[in-house]
């Protein structure tokens, strides 16, 4: 069965002698080209096929060169003339030949003895069904109304030809079914998407209005398929902007509901993006950790609750994990540190508690770690300083305690460090003030001691906030040697002594509520 239509097919070895596998592939391609062009001519005469070129998929690049390029063709004069039909059709722009990797060659199921796992995989990709599960009465009903073919392609296997033979009055219907099966997403993926849709609810016609018909790969908004396998590879449902010019914030599109666990059956899924709907709740399906091809998970801006999947560390290809602005609770799974390809981690503004895993330093590819606005407790693991690609680290608004790791200031590319609104204690590491960090916020902690005299000409701070701590002593004179300090705030400490003259024009609030600071912009010393 292909697409609920009966077909007969046959395959055979070539009946010509070839000097190389390239020649055998070329001969096989010529056979296939003849069959494809004849079928196309038949459909054109019936006025149900446009003039779109036939596309022939070949898994041998040398055979493609033989068909396309004059130099290669000049070396094939020993091949019988009748087999050059393929090249003639290419030259006349009636047929395209494209390379198809062996692992996605659908014709293998018709021409090769395969292992059961591979057989079942290709059967699903082609939309094939067992005759045992088929009711012949469905053939006519399911194809009572058929849309025109937009394109037709024939998969070709090297050294073997595949001929589809049409013996019944259902010729047209069978051909349409074959074309649809190859170019539409498989029935299994289609069923999963419909289950996924049924768990979500739109306030009015929007994204899901386009989710009709069987061609989810081309016509369904937010759905993309792998070019070769035709399996669903990406779900991208992003909410539109919120318009605040009205009396109440207005969003033209709104989706509520939950993420169906059926999504875990999309085994080729590489990207899952469902962002900023604010009405999608429920938990992240634990089975999502079985989707081994996942590279992107972005669920930002919803009302998702529950915990992060315990086995999330199985997603070894994951590069982006974002669940910011949700209601996710529980601890960060220890297995998360196995995501050695992870580059972007954003779990801001949730209810995550517990400690940061001690071996977080294993995330060697991580460039952004944004965990602010949670209830994370315990110390900052020293291993975090081993993530040498880390550019942005935001752990603000948590319950972190203990000292700031000294080596944070020695991280080569760290640019933004936000540790404000925690319970950090101890002194400020001198390395933080003499590093390449441009945005440093240590405010609202319990830091003690003096401000390190570690400023230099390489210091360039767009923001330096040390307010609301227990710092004492003078403001270091070396601060005047910094290349640039934009916003500075040393207020609400126990600092004493003169303010460096370079900051005489700074707002007075930046130095207010200290023990005995003096000089502009405060009172004279």
UniProtKB/TrEMBL annotation:
Any GO CC annotation of this UniProt entry: plasma membrane
Entry annotated with the keyword Cell membrane: yes
Record InterPro entries: Leu-rich_rpt (IPR001611), LRR_dom_sf (IPR032675), LRR_N_plant-typ (IPR013210), PGIP (IPR051848)
Pfam families: LRR_1, LRRNT_2
Record keywords, A-Z: Cell membrane, Glycoprotein, Leucine-rich repeat, Membrane, Repeat, Signal
Annotated ranges, domain Leucine-rich repeat-containing N-terminal plant-type: 187-226
PANTHER family: OS06G0587000 PROTEIN, POLYGALACTURONASE INHIBITOR 1
Protein's recorded name: Leucine-rich repeat-containing N-terminal plant-type domain-containing protein
Taxonomic lineage of the native organism: Eukaryota, Viridiplantae, Streptophyta, Embryophyta, Tracheophyta
């Amino acid at each position: 069965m292909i697409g609920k239509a009966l077909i007969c097919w046959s395959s055979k070895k070539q009946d010509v002698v070839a000097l190389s596998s390239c020649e055998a592939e070329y001969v096989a391609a010529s056979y296939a080209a003849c069959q494809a062009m004849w079928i196309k001519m038949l459909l054109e005469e019936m006025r149900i096929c446009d003039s779109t070129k036939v596309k022939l998929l070949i898994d041998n690049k040398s055979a493609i060169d033989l068909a396309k390029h004059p130099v290669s063709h000049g070396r094939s004069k020993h091949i019988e003339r009748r087999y050059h039909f393929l090249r003639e059709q290419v030259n006349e722009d009636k047929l395209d030949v494209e390379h198809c990797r062996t692992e996605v060659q659908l014709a293998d199921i018709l021409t090769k003895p395969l292992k059961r796992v591979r057989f079942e995989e290709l059967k699903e990709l082609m939309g094939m069904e067992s005759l045992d599960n088929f009711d012949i009465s469905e053939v006519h009903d399911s194809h009572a109304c058929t849309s025109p073919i937009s394109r037709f392609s024939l998969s070709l296997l090297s050294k073997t030809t595949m001929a589809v033979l049409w013996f019944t009055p259902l010729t047209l219907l069978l051909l349409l079914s074959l074309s649809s099966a190859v170019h539409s997403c498989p029935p299994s993926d289609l069923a999963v998407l419909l289950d996924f849709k049924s768990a979500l609810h739109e306030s009015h016609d929007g994204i899901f209005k386009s989710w009709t018909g069987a061609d989810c790969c081309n016509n369904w908004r937010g759905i993309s398929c792998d070019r070769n396998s035709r399996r669903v590879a990406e779900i991208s449902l992003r909410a539109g902007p919120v318009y605040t010019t009205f009396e109440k914030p207005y969003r033209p599109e709104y989706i509520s509901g939950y993420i169906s666990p059926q999504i875990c059956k999309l085994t080729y899924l590489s990207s899952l993006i469902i962002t900023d709907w604010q009405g999608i709740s429920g938990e992240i399906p634990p089975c999502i950790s079985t989707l081994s091809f996942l590279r992107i998970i972005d669920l930002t801006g919803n009302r998702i609750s529950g915990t992060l999947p315990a086995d999330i560390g199985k997603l070894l290809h994951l590069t982006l994990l974002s669940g910011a602005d949700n209601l996710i609770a529980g601890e960060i799974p220890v297995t998360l540190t196995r995501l050695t390809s992870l580059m972007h981690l954003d779990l801001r503004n949730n209810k995550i508690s517990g400690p940061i895993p001690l071996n977080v330093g294993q995330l060697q590819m991580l460039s952004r770690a944004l965990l602010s606005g949670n209830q994370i407790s315990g110390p900052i693991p020293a291993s975090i300083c081993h993530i040498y690609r880390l550019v942005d680290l935001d752990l603000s608004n948590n319950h972190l305690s203990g000292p700031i790791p000294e080596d944070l200031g020695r991280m080569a590319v760290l640019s933004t460090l936000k540790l404000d609104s925690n319970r950090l204690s101890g002194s400020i590491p001198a390395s933080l003030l003499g590093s390449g960090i441009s945005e440093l916020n240590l405010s609202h902690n319990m830091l003690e001691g003096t401000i390190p005299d570690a400023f230099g000409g390489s210091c360039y701070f767009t923001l330096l906030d040390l307010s609301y701590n227990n710092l004492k002593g003078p403001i270091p004179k070396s601060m005047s040697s910094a290349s640039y300090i934009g916003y500075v705030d040393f207020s609400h400490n126990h600092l004493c002594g003169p303010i460096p003259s370079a900051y005489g024009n700074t707002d007075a609030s930046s130095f207010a509520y200290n023990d005995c600071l003096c000089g502009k912009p405060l009172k004279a010393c």
